Structure formats: structure tokens, C-alpha cells
Amino acid sequence: MVLSRHFSQNATKPFHSVNSLVPISHTRSPPFYSSSSSTMSMSLLEFITILVLFDSLCFSPRLSTASPLNHQYNVGDPVPLFVNKVGPLTNPSETYQYYELPFCRPDPVVQKKATLGEVLNGDRLNGALHVVKFREEKPWETLCEKKLKGAEVSLFRDAVRNDFYFQLYCDDLPVWGFVGKIDEQSWSLDKQGPKCSGGDEEDEKEVVWKYLHGDVFRCPQNLPLFSAVLGVGTQLLTMFCCLFLLAFLGILYPYNRGSLFTSIILIYSLTSAVSGYVSASFHCQFAEIGWERSVILSGILYLGPSFVIISILNIIAISNGTTAALPIGTIIVILLIYVFISLPLLVFGGIIGHRFRSEFQAPCATKRNPREIPPLAWFRKLPCQMFISGLLSFSAVVLELHHLYASMWGFKIFTLPSILFITFIILIILTAILSVGLTYIQLSVEDHQWWWRSVFSGGSAAIFMFGYCIYFYARSNMNGFLQLCFFVGYNACICYAFFLMLGVISFRVSLIFVRRIYDAVKSE
Q1: Coil, strand, or helix at residue 167?
Q2: Sign of CA dihedral 219, 225, 227, 233
Q3: Per-residue pLDDT tens for 225-266?
Q4: Contact, 257 vs 113, CB < 8 A?
Q5: What spatial distance separates the first Cα and last Cα of the chain, rounded to whole Å?
Q6: What is the rounded distance in angstroms from the CA atom of residue 307 to the CA atom of residue 493?
Q7: CA distances (Å), 410 to each of 148, 401, 473, in order?
Q8: Phi and psi for 132 in degrees, rounded to 5?
Q9: Residue-wise pLDDT tens digits, 264-322
Q10: Closest C-alpha to 84, from 55, 61, 59, 114
Q11: pLDDT 10s digits, 321-338
Q12: Tens digit of pLDDT for each residue in 157-173?
């Protein structure tokens, strides 16, 4: 059996292999400005100067040298082309190296040196047998002729049956296509549309929450863990703000392979000092000893569960032989970054937070014996408040979350960081408003243990996000144990980060609110 690889746009065979490349031209025209000189006369020197500048602008593209670094080419210059990976269309995490299928390959196969972000993204770029020249069309060209064995034919048949796609990079721009298709089968895309109380009671409630002035600022239970939650949540919030800043500056370019993963690792490591400082300083406001435990918990509160999940996913990827498996060299690099950058900065931030500690400034003195909390109705307890707060906050981001998941687990490219940033700000504002309202309701029923409840109420939106990711997976065409593990595992890490971050925002806003209202009580 002979298999021919062609550059073709139209094919009539019922089973064939398709690799269609579209010539990509990069043209950058120099700026040109013209003005009218009807109202003023120019001297001869000015005329000669403008003429020289005009000539230099016109001929500057011709004098510039062609280079793949600045993406400028002359006619006939070779354009760099690399093959990357193949995999089923419905399972973005299940990818394999391009030459694991019996494609035509150069001899020898030259592998491009991958960056840290490319390895984390599962990219394995190798040299291609194709020759692409700038502005030279090749509508039909036989790449090679190869006699396939029975096992190789079975590989192609399985790839076509499972809707395998291939990915190339031409001049650092991604090119996707199907390995093959069956013409007898038709595909269609269906879009479905989206088928009081009285014044006396208010005065009474206002009086009730005033009775808690001696208990509302009592030290929260499990102080080291609470301090660690505040530290890690503040660190994650700082990291997200830095990522948005890099996106607005154009550093996180959508087509820059692996830049997001590299930025997350580096920024998280560099912001470890924030986590250590916040956790140690908050702990020292209530207790002079034990702040070391808060710093240690800050180092493992998020990285511990994430490390376990990613390790399990890496073992599954290795057993399936996919490109998502991290090489041992990449794992060692990540561990070195944590040991020599993240861990020292975490300890340094903890020492600074302990040295510059201050006492907790409460507007009212705290009583020695805690006030007894009366029995609460079911709709005033923590689960109901988490449901209300999480549902309302989640409703503000559900539409943008769909497009974000389609970009992360599909083949859409998200190029609007401004819209995502606006959605993020709306989520923060709504979380803050709900935290203030729920904290006031809690104090109105004589429940002074609002510290942990504000964290859980604010972070409950992440639980709805995780539930939506399960719904997204069920509605998509993704299948298989490998894809399910990667989808659930990575989304669990993301939602856990949002839980800590939103919980810290909710607590900080609630603390400001409680300080203000009881400061007013003290002044009365």
C-alpha cells in the first residue's frame, strides 16, 4: 500500500491524509505622513531633507535583512516550519508526538530545544520535511512516497476514526488540521438558544448586634491555619494581578507557546514573600509565639494538594505515553525554583512580618468569657449562606467562564484580556457586597463567629465554578479516563486557588465593615 502526502485543498478520495498549509505573509508597512503645503512655502533645504527621508522610508524594508526572529522575510526566503503533536480532537490533554504516526519524516529528525513553558504545555517541536518559502505558492506537491505496513495502516485508521488532528507551527503561528477524514460521514454543528420588615424590627436588630461588641473581635479559631489562608489568598490575588498586567503589556501573547505556564511558576515563586509576610504579621497580632507554624502552613496549603494532583496526572500521562507527561529534567527545574527562590522568599517574608508586627487594633475591648450563641434557623446557617453567596457571585462570571473553558480545553484562542479583567473586577465587587450583607445578617442574630464564615461565604463561588466544569465536560465531546483526569485535576487546582483568593477578599471587606460599625458604637 502506498501513501502519498500532498499539499492539497480539495481531495476526492474517501480516505486520505490531509496537511494543508496556508502561506502566511508578514508585511509591515512603514508609517507615512503627508501634509499640504498650499499655505506656506518651503525652502530648498527643507525640500531636500524631506525627499531624503521619504526615500529612506520607502527603501528601508528592502534593506532590512530577513530573519525569523523579527518575522520579516524577502520573497523566496524559507519560512521556519515545525511539526508539534497529534491527538484526538475531543480530548485536548491526550496528545502524542507528531512522528508517532508513520508520517513522512526527515532524516535525521531534528528536535527543537523547548522552553520550560513549552514543556509544561506538552509541546514537542521537531523539524518538518515540508519546505515553505515566503510568497511562493505550492498548490500541489508530493512530499514523499512510502509503503506502509499493516500495523502502520492500522495506526492511521485509528487516528481517522478517533478524529485525530495535527498541529504545526509555521513562523511561530499554529496550524491545525485533521490527519484524515471519511467523506461518507457528514458533520453538523447545532446551536441551541437559551430555551419587609417594619421599622421597629429594624431598630431591634440594630440593638442586637450592638450587644456583641465584646465578642466580635475575639481571636478566630485555629489561628495558624486562618493566617495561612490569608497569606496564600493574598499571594494568589497578587499573582493574578501580575498576570493581567503582563497580558496588557503584551508579554502574555496568545501565540507565545507556554508563556502562561512559565509566568505562573515564576510569579508564584516571587510572590512567596507576600504569603509569608501576611501570615506571620496577622498571626503576631493575636499571639507572639507560633508564627512559624503559620508560615509553614502557607508554604504547603496550596502547593501541597496541587503537587499531589499534578504528580498523579503525570503518572497517568507517562503510562499512556502522551506529551503531557513532564520529563524528569523539567520536574527538577521546578523543584529547584521552589527550593532556591520560593522557599527562601517565604521565610524572608515571615521574618519581616514577625519583626514589624503590631497588635490587633479593635475598637472595643474583648470580654474574657465568650457570649453564648443562640440556636439559628436553617436558612441562617453556613451552608445556606454559602449557597446564596456562591450562586450570586457565580452568575456574574458564568458566560465568560464558558468562553474561558472553550479556550483552555478546546481550540479557541482567547485574545481579550480586557473583558476577562472586567469580569474579574465584577466578581470581586459582587463578592465584597455579599460578604458585607451576610456578615451583617449574622451579627443581627447574635452570632459573633464571623471570621471563618466570611472566608467560606466568599470562596463558595469557586465551588459553583467546579460544578460548572463538570457540566462543561458532560456536554462536550471529551471522553476517556486520561482526559477526565486531566480536566478534573487541573480545574480542581484552579477552583481551589479562586476559593482562597475570594475568601480573603470577603474577609478583608467584612473586617473593614465590622470595624466601622463598632467604631461608631464606641463613639456613641
Answers
A1: strand
A2: negative
A3: 999 999 999 999 999 999 999 988 888 776 676 788 889 999
A4: no
A5: 93
A6: 10
A7: 32, 13, 11
A8: -115, 125
A9: 999 999 999 999 999 999 999 988 888 999 999 999 999 999 999 999 999 999 999 88
A10: 114
A11: 888 888 999 999 999 999
A12: 888 888 888 888 888 78
What pTM was estimated for this model as a whole?
Answer: 0.74
User: CA distances (Å), 4 to each of 15, 20, 132, 246, in order?
Assistant: 12, 14, 18, 45
The pLDDT of residue 522 is 56
Please give the single-letter amino acid code of residue 365: A
Distance CA 316, CA 320 (A): 6
Contact 295, 301 (CB under 8 A): no
CA distance 323 to 182: 27
Question: Using CA atoms, how far apart are residues 333 and 499, in angstroms rounded to an integer?
Answer: 28
Cell numbers for 190: 447545532
* Angstrom distance (rounded) from CA 221 to CA 229: 13
Q: Compute the distance between CA of residue 190 and CA of residue 367 in angstroms, rounded to an integer.
A: 65
Q: What is the pLDDT of residue 408?
A: 81
Least Cα distance to 135 among 28, 22, 58 occurs for: 22
CA–CA separation, 482 and 319 (whole Å): 10
Distance CA 361, CA 346 (A): 26
Tell which residue, 23, 38, 205, has the closest CA to residue 131. Answer: 23
Backbone dihedral angles phi then psi of residue 320, each to the nearest 5 degrees: -95, -5
